[in-house]
Helix-turn-helix domain-containing protein (Leeuwenhoekiella parthenopeia), 99 residues
Amino acid sequence: MEKYKDIKTFDELIELEHGAIGTESRNSYEESAQLFIISEMLKAARKEAKMTQKQLAEKAGTKKSYISKIENGKANIQLSTLIRIFEQGLNRRVGFTFL
């Protein structure tokens, strides 16, 4: 706990644990965090639509196993496929913000 005594913000904690922005370690962490967020958003949207993974896959033109992999953060998702799943499969619009 000694190494955390001077930590005052979440950003400081992330830098301590995963390195500075731009480092390989930090980039890996950021990528994993984004995949987790996408997986949780997809899972929540699918459940809100009262659809199974199989139903969503059929509607979006993909496989149930692929939906499962995305929801479990195990898939490398192409942007076009992600948009198709949300827009065709769930009738949701996709927007992006770049920081």
Notes: The chain has a mean pLDDT of 94. The chain has one domain: 2-90. The radius of gyration is 17 Å. Residues 56 and 89 are 5 Å apart (CA to CA).
